């Protein structure tokens, strides 16, 4: 039972963590609390749904369908993300960040309700994207998809973390996030770098959607809403701009969600406890768990 | 021409958290209105009038629900209002119903407090009623002696059913071994901890009075956590999508309370189902929301024709005195001294991926 | 001697992790002096100002102002009670007018409360009038009147430096800390600044501490100079002694003497 | 290089440049040339428009009127990063260090254009910079934002040296530098020029600037009022009085 | 010389008085339907709400999401007080005050995290606070848990709403033009520099949060007594986002902007209703377009009174032209 709960925690944590880093890509680099990111997640869900439903009509090779529909959906969400960036955010590059937040709220609504109008208000069930196999670990049967979710999420996280920390592009991304003009003096095209961050964000959101869909198959047009809030919370909790932080934040939220109802006598107090813990942590570490102290010297 | 048209308002949840409610609701209303008009409209004082409605989206938002209600109340051509469906939305309009004397019929709000206002009526039974039925069913039909509940604590409906179920189940001699909640408003999708606790107590039956979109996930997780017993569901389960989604048959054997069933359907109901398929061409049968909204319109019609008046007060009085209305969702009688109809509920069981009729319960 | 000192450092240390920004520094500043602090880049000069104005709490040691220990006081309290500074990287309220920049700095010397605000009491009106007049007077003194209604951020560098000084004066300090006031000025402008600093000191009865790399300023107006290097005190003395101190020449001024 | 009049094809040619903030013109139609291998100094009082000029060259602010020809190509309105790629490097006023990147990462960001292709070049240049400013080597892992003012200035210059390019625009590189380092910086500038890079230098330290410059322009409230060789400048009483002091 | 700048209090208040007068006429002569009147009351009370948010998010420049929590506290406190203590309609001012004060008390507590945490970290702390309030109300049986409170006396009317709005505007104006207001704007730009010119940052933040919460609490109190009902679900994410949209749409740090933001958003919600499910496709698009073309919100940080000031200046200039040209030649 404990092992099972642990796996559940890992599963939920991985999904939150992945969603959080996908959010964090744009958030950390373009410095934008992107309320429309949830809509990208929603769109990813629909694209995955339609792509896989269609593909399953042709073939029954689950893995193939999984990978292929992820690719199709990633392409779709990337295009959406690029358009979104060009149309709604680029004109606001020099605006106060908060204006961009409001603009993103607008874009988010637009995309979400577009999805509602195109796909209908009926909820959908994501086909099983990961083969329905169970494995035995120490006497407990664990569905394969749970393991896969955890594995895929970890791979994505490690790749991304290396990318941002070690590569030239990663350094450029962080430079752009701090001073676009100064970055331009180094020959860095900030628009391009920001576009990359939107694309990475979209692809990661798509993977997160694929995993989410495998775990919780029924979804409607507003799935992305709460995911977005959780991602925002996780990203901040871990320390803004830190990929590892977002991962940690995601796992903590997952942990609270799994542990709180377990230890509390009355599960309806769960949210109070969860947000209480959140506030407490941020009061003790006001720059997030892994966030660097904002480098400001007088 | 316009003088011959009688309007009512529809205050419905087209956008916001659960757009499927609004979409289904308007289908039911639309069907009923068209049918009535085809059949010659409303006949009052020997004259026949066309029946029509003005629909306003409330965005699943209390401010907007109230505003819609106020707009209907102001509009003198509007005789009554149908909806909202959600209890929270309804409660925001309650003060207007009474304050301005506009009769309102909620098709689907099962919250007990709703009809404490004398202008509010409903086309459905209440949470107390269905909670009791569920408890009885669990105890007597399934011989359950221990039960557990898992419900969305952010919604008064879910809480209402769960609470009543627990009360009655205890009265009958059973024991509610675990009562677990989650918060639907924060988009919770993982219930494994709650379900682990429930499974640990090994209840005979598990009640999940939640919206059907959440059920598959909850059932899957319950099974994953090793829950072997049966599930029990409330009227928010009754939508054929639920059965389509349940590809693994996890819900087999679960029982739910609903508002009507094809197998015991009256002619009215059969015609309704038939028409629905003709108009909307959908494979699944109309869900309870469609049926209740349809009935709500007919209730209004009945009241108007009974009272032979379009006056709001008169409509209210005549609604309160409807003796028999044969609806899709059963026969209703308003004899409780308030806006609650006396009507029966249907117990159904999910067998072979279908809702199978088990029994009807009359109060 | 000690009792006359308005500001004194006693064995102050300030460490950032492994970096010893200030390492055991002691000195006294007498009232009415212009006290210079010089030293190579990263020698801890700005950090001395930072601990003195309360932004950082020193790792160890004590700081006295009028013989009162001020190590643990919050910055706004220290500023309100007589030690005010300017910044090496100008930090004006860029989007506000020059006049408002000065009015903000009056904060601790405005005597009315919330209730006066709500009821627009006479006291409120009088105080508001007073600070407006005082601000304008300071601007006039600093030759900045022309800029009063302009946004501070759009003004030339030199003007911004003077506005910073004007703003600091609005806090009614006894001790004024200037961090590289002459940076970005040409020799002619520096000469003007020298006069200005002396004028301010005399007019407002101040003690001035100034960090600067421009010898044209330091040697001209300072009564005493502290030289730091790697966070430690290298020398302290009169300008002439410092100018000819071989250690200072080696570590700071460079082999060739500055053009004088 | 005093035979400037006879030289053809300046590396950078600016004519009738007008820049304004809102309605107020900060630069009122200035022209100047910079030839390859030269150190050109631009002098002027506070607020004369020196920074504005440099910012206009690299499109940090938009140009209202005039022409900017760099390597024979009109770069007016070209995005900043493309101008950098063409070889014009800007060391801005106020240093503009990336505060949350470490010193090492700041330097690495400066090699964005070629690091992938030529890692060795980056390492060479980085070593050169670190030898020039040993303090930067000591502090590779310190966050840029916590450096002292002068240390930041070292880093800003170091970044430009790493980026390379044909012409470096320096906005008051000696600002906030200790006297001993000021001399070192001017020597470095001289050395860079000798190695073939061109320098456009904005300086308040007119004395030092003139020592190393080949040609000077004097800017007064948005207009070029004098230009000539340093010798000519030093001979001009007005200029000496206004910028060099007694 | 400097034109001495008077506080054109009337500049902001007069329009509201005029509007209110028009409303009274409309209402008393029944020239307007009750539902239009209801929209106007929403506009009025959300203007108060937004003015409150603006104190912290606009003037102080903190990205706070605490407003849902403040509104809930004000609404519930007021509802309880009118249900159990202040049952008569003449006690309505007491009810409003009670709602405002309870919210203010909570606001005082909420200012503490802002001493230490900054930016989005503070945003999440305040978000957590709002959600804790909501969750607490969902659990509290005494106030109906998720069912909320119904049968609350409908004391609110257009006079109360616009009376309170007028009060709110005056309070905010006075506040902003005092040393406290100036210090908020200074902190918004540079907290460290503010401290180093003697501004008591903690005090300024505490006061800002308190005033903000007080106004938001009053708007909540007005809302419950307008609808006669409230439930916890009204104070969740939607409320939080709506508040943000209204503040920044109008312009942060502008009183006029707050009112314009609230008005525009309420009108947008109503007019788009006819579009069915397309309403938020259009609404979202519009929001985005407005922000692109008016990057600082509709009013930016300008006030209506600035326009009056400018006009006055223009006219006075033509009169005193001579003296000014004298000054400039000097
Ligand atoms: N917050 C901090 N974290 C880490 N190191 C710091 C911090 N503040 C200062 N330092 C280091 O402490 C040393 C002293 O810095 P300080 O700013 O006092 O130098 P300075 O003497 O003012 O130099 P300059 O003349 O260049 O302005 C520097 O090496 C600097 O890098
Ligand atoms: N953002 C701005 N908005 C409005 N005016 C500006 C702005 N930046 C600069 N100016 C004005 O343009 C003129 C030129 O300024 P610039 O910064 O180019 O001068 P500078 O020669 O570099 O002076 P310094 O030696 O002080 O750096 C000044 O009068 C200044 O007030
Ligand atoms: C779930 C809701 C839309 C309907 C439910 N019967 C209620 O009373 O609220
Ligand atoms: Mg310094
Ligand atoms: Mg400059």
TrEMBL record, chain A:
A single cellular component GO annotation: plasma membrane
Membrane topology: Multi-pass membrane protein
One biological process term in Gene Ontology: L-alanine transport
Molecular function per GO: L-isoleucine transmembrane transporter activity; L-leucine transmembrane transporter activity; L-phenylalanine transmembrane transporter activity; L-valine transmembrane transporter activity
Subcellular localization: Cell membrane
Keywords linked to the UniProt accession: Amino-acid transport, Cell inner membrane, Cell membrane, Membrane, Transmembrane, Transmembrane helix, Transport
Primary subcellular site in the record, as a coarse category: membrane
Domain of life from the UniProt record: Bacteria
Record-annotated membrane-spanning stretches: 6-28, 35-56, 62-83, 95-116, 144-164, 193-215, 227-260, 272-291
Pfam (any one): BPD_transp_2
Similarity comment text for this entry: Belongs to the binding-protein-dependent transport system permease family. LivHM subfamily.
PANTHER family on file: BRANCHED-CHAIN AMINO ACID TRANSPORT SYSTEM PERMEASE PROTEIN LIVH (PTHR11795), HIGH-AFFINITY BRANCHED-CHAIN AMINO ACID TRANSPORT SYSTEM PERMEASE PROTEIN LIVH (PTHR11795:SF371)
Protein name as annotated: Branched-chain amino acid ABC-type transport system, permease component
Organism per entry: Flexilinea flocculi
Organism ancestry: Bacteria, Bacillati, Chloroflexota, Anaerolineae, Anaerolineales
UniProtKB/TrEMBL annotation, chain C:
Domain of life: Bacteria
Domain called ABC transporter: residue spans: 7-255
A Pfam family matched in the record: ABC_tran
Entry keyword annotation includes ATP-binding: yes
Molecular function GO labels: ATP binding; ATP hydrolysis activity; L-isoleucine transmembrane transporter activity; L-phenylalanine transmembrane transporter activity; L-valine transmembrane transporter activity
GO cellular component, one term: plasma membrane
Keywords: ATP-binding, Nucleotide-binding, Transport
InterPro entries: AAA+_ATPase, ABC_AA/LPS_Transport, ABC_transporter-like_ATP-bd, BCA_ABC_TP_C, P-loop_NTPase
Classification via Gene3D superfamilies: P-loop containing nucleotide triphosphate hydrolases (3.40.50.300)
Biological process terms in GO annotation: D-alanine transmembrane transport; L-alanine transport; L-isoleucine import across plasma membrane; L-valine import across plasma membrane
Record-given protein name: Amino acid/amide ABC transporter ATP-binding protein 1, HAAT family
Organism: Flexilinea flocculi
From TrEMBL, chain D:
One example of a Gene Ontology biological process annotation: L-amino acid transport
Entry GO MF terms: ATP binding; ATP hydrolysis activity; branched-chain amino acid transmembrane transporter activity
Highest taxon listed in the record's lineage: Bacteria
Key words of the record: Amino-acid transport, ATP-binding, Nucleotide-binding, Transport
Domain ABC transporter: from-to ranges: 12-246
Signal sequence range: none
UniProt key word Transport: yes
Presence of the UniProt keyword Calcium in the record: no
Record PROSITE patterns: ABC_TRANSPORTER_1 (PS00211), ABC_TRANSPORTER_2 (PS50893)
Cross-referenced Pfam families: ABC_tran
Protein name in UniProt: Urea ABC transporter ATP-binding protein
Organism for this UniProt entry: Flexilinea flocculi
TrEMBL record, chain E:
GO cellular component labels: plasma membrane
Any one Gene Ontology molecular-function term assigned to this protein's record: branched-chain amino acid transmembrane transporter activity
Ranges in a coiled coil: none
Membrane topology designation: Multi-pass membrane protein
Keywords tagged on the record: Cell membrane, Membrane, Transmembrane, Transmembrane helix
Location(s), subcellular: Cell membrane
CDD domains cross-referenced by the UniProt entry: TM_PBP1_LivM_like (cd06581)
Transmembrane segment boundaries: 9-26, 32-52, 59-78, 90-109, 121-137, 157-176, 207-227, 247-268, 280-299
Keyword Electron transport: no
InterPro entries given in the database record: ABC_transp_permease (IPR001851), LivM-like (IPR043428)
Matching PANTHER family: HIGH-AFFINITY BRANCHED-CHAIN AMINO ACID TRANSPORT PROTEIN BRAE, HIGH-AFFINITY BRANCHED-CHAIN AMINO ACID TRANSPORT SYSTEM PERMEASE
Protein name: ABC-type branched-chain amino acid transport system, permease component
Native source species: Flexilinea flocculi
Lineage: Bacteria, Bacillati, Chloroflexota, Anaerolineae, Anaerolineales
């Amino acid at each position: 039972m404990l092992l099972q709960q642990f796996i559940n925690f890992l599963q939920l944590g991985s999904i939150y963590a992945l969603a959080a880093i996908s959010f964090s890509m744009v958030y950390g680099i373009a410095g934008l609390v992107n309320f429309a990111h949830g809509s990208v997640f929603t769109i990813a869900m629909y694209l995955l749904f339609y792509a896989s439903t269609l593909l399953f009509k042709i073939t029954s090779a689950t893995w193939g369908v999984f990978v292929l529909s992820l690719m199709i959906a990633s392409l779709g969400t990337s295009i959406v993300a690029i358009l979104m960036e060009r149309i709604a955010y680029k004109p606001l590059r020099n605006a106060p960040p908060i204006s961009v937040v409001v603009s993103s709220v607008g874009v988010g609504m637009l995309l979400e309700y577009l999805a509602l109008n195109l796909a209908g208000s009926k909820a959908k069930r994501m086909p099983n994207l990961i083969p329905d196999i169970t494995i035995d670990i120490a006497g407990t049967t664990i569905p394969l998809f749970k393991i896969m979710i955890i594995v895929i999420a970890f791979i994505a996280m490690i790749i991304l973390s290396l990318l941002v920390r070690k590569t030239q592009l990663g350094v450029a991304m962080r430079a752009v996030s701090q001073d676009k003009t100064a970055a331009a003096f180094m020959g860095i095209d900030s628009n391009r770098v920001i576009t990359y961050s939107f694309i990475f964000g979209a692809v990661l959101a798509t993977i997160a959607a694929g995993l989410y869909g495998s775990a919780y198959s029924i979804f409607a047009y507003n799935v992305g809403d709460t995911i977005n809030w959780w991602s925002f919370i996780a990203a901040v909790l871990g320390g803004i701009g830190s990929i590892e932080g977002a991962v940690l934040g995601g796992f903590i939220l997952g942990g609270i969600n799994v542990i709180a109802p377990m230890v509390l006598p009355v599960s309806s107090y769960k949210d109070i406890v969860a947000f209480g813990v959140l506030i407490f942590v941020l009061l003790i570490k006001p720059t997030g768990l892994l966030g660097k102290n904002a480098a400001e010297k007088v | 021409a316009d003088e011959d048209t009688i309007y009512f308002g529809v205050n419905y949840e087209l956008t916001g958290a659960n757009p499927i409610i609004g979409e289904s609701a308007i289908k039911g209303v639309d069907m009923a209105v068209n049918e009535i008009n085809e059949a010659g409209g409303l006949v009052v004082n020997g004259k026949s009038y066309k029946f029509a409605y003005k629909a306003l989206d409330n965005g699943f938002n209390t401010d907007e629900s109230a505003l819609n209600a106020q707009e209907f109340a102001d509009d003198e051509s509007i005789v009554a209002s149908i909806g909202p469906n959600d209890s929270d939305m309804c409660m925001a309009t309650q003060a207007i119903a009474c304050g301005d004397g506009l009769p309102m019929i909620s098709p689907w709000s099962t919250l007990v407090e709703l009809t404490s206002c004398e202008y509010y009526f409903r086309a459905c039974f209440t949470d107390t009623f269905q909670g009791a039925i569920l408890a009885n069913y669990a105890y007597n039909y399934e011989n359950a002696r221990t039960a557990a509940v898992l419900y969305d604590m952010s919604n008064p409906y879910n809480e209402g059913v769960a609470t009543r179920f627990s009360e009655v189940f205890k009265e009958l001699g059973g024991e509610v071994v675990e009562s677990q909640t989650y918060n639907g408003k924060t988009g919770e999708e993982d219930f494994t901890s709650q379900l682990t606790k429930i499974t640990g107590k090994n209840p005979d039956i598990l009640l999940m009075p939640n919206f059907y979109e959440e059920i598959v996930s909850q059932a899957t997780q319950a099974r994953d956590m090793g829950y072997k017993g049966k599930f029990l569901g409330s009227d928010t389960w009754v939508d054929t999508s639920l059965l389509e989604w349940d590809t693994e048959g996890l819900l087999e054997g679960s029982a739910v309370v609903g508002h009507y069933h094809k197998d015991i359907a009256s002619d009215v109901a059969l015609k309704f189902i038939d028409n629905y398929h003709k108009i909307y061409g959908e494979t699944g049968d109309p869900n309870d929301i469609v049926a209740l909204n349809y009935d709500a319109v007919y209730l209004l019609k009945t009241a108007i024709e009974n009272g032979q008046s379009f006056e709001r007060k008169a409509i209210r009085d005549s609604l309160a005195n409807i003796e028999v209305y044969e609806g899709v969702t059963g026969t209703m009688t308003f004899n409780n001294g308030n806006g609650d109809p006396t009507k029966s509920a249907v117990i159904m069981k999910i067998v072979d991926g279908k809702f199978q009729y088990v029994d009807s319960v009359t109060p | 001697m000690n009792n006359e000192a308005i500001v004194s450092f006693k064995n102050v240390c300030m460490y950032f992790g492994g970096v010893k920004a200030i390492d055991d520094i002691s000195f006294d500043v007498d009232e009415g002096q212009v006290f210079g602090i010089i030293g190579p880049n990263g020698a801890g000069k700005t950090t001395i100002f930072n601990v003195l104005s309360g932004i950082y709490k020193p790792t160890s040691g004590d700081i006295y102002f009028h013989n009162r220990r001020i190590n643990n006081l919050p910055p706004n309290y220290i500023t309100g009670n007589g030690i005010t500074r300017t910044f090496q990287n100008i930090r004006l309220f860029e989007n506000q007018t020059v006049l408002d920049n000065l009015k903000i700095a009056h904060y601790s010397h405005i005597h009315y409360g919330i209730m006066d605000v709500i009821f627009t009491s006479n006291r409120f009106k009088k105080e508001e009038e007073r600070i407006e007049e005082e601000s304008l007077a300071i601007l006039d003194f600093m030759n900045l009147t022309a800029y009063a209604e302009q946004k501070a951020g759009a003004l030339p560098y030199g003007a911004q430096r003077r506005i910073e000084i004007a703003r600091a004066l609005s806090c009614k300090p006894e001790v004024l800390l200037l961090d590289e006031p002459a940076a970005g000025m040409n020799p002619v402008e520096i000469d003007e600044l020298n006069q200005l600093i002396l004028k301010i000191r005399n007019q407002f009865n101040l003690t001035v501490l100034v960090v600067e790399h421009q010898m044209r300023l330091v040697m001209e107006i300072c009564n005493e100079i502290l030289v730091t290097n790697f966070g430690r005190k290298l020398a302290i003395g009169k300008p002439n002694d410092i100018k000819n101190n071989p250690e200072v020449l080696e570590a700071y001024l460079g082999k060739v003497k500055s053009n004088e | 290089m005093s035979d400037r009049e006879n030289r053809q094809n300046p590396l950078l040619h600016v004519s009738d440049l007008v820049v304004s903030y809102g309605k107020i013109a900060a630069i009122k139609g200035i022209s100047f040339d910079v030839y390859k291998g030269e150190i050109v100094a631009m002098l002027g009082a506070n607020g004369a428009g020196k920074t504005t000029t440099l910012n206009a060259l690299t499109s940090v602010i938009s140009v209202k009127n005039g022409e900017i020809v760099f390597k024979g190509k009109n770069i007016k309105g070209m995005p900043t990063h493309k101008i950098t790629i063409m070889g014009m490097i800007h060391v801005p006023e106020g240093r503009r260090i990336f505060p949350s990147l470490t010193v090492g990462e700041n330097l690495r960001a400066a090699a964005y254009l070629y690091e992938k292709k030529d890692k060795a070049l980056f390492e060479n240049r980085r070593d050169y910079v670190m030898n020039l400013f040993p303090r930067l080597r000591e502090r590779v892992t310190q966050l840029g934002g916590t450096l002292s003012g002068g240390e930041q200035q070292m880093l800003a210059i170091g970044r430009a040296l790493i980026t390379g390019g044909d012409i470096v625009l320096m906005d008051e590189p000696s600002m906030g530098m200790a006297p001993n380092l000021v001399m070192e910086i001017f020597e470095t500038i001289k050395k860079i020029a000798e190695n073939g890079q061109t320098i456009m230098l904005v300086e308040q330290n007119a004395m030092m600037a003139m020592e190393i410059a080949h040609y000077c322009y004097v800017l007064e409230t948005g207009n070029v009022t004098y230009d000539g060789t340093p010798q000519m400048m030093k001979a001009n009483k007005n200029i000496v009085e206004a910028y060099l002091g007694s | 010389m400097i034109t001495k700048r008077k506080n054109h209090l009337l500049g902001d208040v007069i329009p509201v008085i005029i509007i209110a007068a028009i409303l009274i006429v409309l209402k008393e002569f029944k020239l307007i339907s009750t539902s239009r009147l209801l929209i106007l009351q929403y506009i009025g009370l959300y203007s108060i709400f937004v003015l409150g948010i603006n104190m912290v998010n606009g003037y102080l420049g903190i990205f706070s999401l605490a407003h849902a929590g403040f509104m809930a506290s004000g609404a519930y406190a007021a509802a309880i007080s009118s249900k159990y203590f202040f049952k008569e309609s003449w006690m309505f001012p007491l009810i409003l005050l009670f709602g405002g004060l309870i919210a203010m008390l909570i606001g005082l507590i909420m200012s503490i995290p802002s001493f230490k945490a900054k930016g989005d970290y503070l945003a999440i702390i305040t978000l957590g606070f709002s959600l804790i309030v909501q969750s607490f109300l969902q659990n509290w049986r005494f106030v109906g848990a998720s069912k909320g409170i119904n049968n609350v006396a409908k004391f609110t009317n257009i006079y109360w709403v616009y009376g309170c709005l007028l009060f709110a505007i005056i309070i905010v104006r006075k506040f902003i033009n005092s040393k406290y207001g100036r210090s908020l704007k200074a902190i918004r730009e540079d907290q460290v520099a503010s401290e180093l010119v003697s501004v008591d940052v903690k005090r300024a933040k505490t006061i800002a949060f308190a005033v903000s919460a007080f106004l938001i609490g009053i708007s909540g109190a007005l809302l419950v007594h307008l609808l006669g009902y409230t439930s916890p679900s009204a104070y969740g994410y939607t409320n939080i986002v709506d508040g943000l949209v209204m503040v920044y749409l109008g312009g942060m740090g502008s009183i006029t902007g707050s009112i314009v933001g609230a008005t525009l958003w309420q009108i947008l919600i109503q007019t788009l209703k006819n579009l069915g499910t397309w309403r938020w496709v259009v609404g979202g698009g519009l929001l985005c377009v407005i922000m692109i073309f008016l990057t600082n919100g509709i009013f930016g940080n300008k006030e209506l009174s600035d326009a009056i000031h400018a006009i006055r200046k223009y006219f006075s200039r033509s009169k005193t032209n001579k003296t000014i040209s004298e000054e400039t030649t000097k």
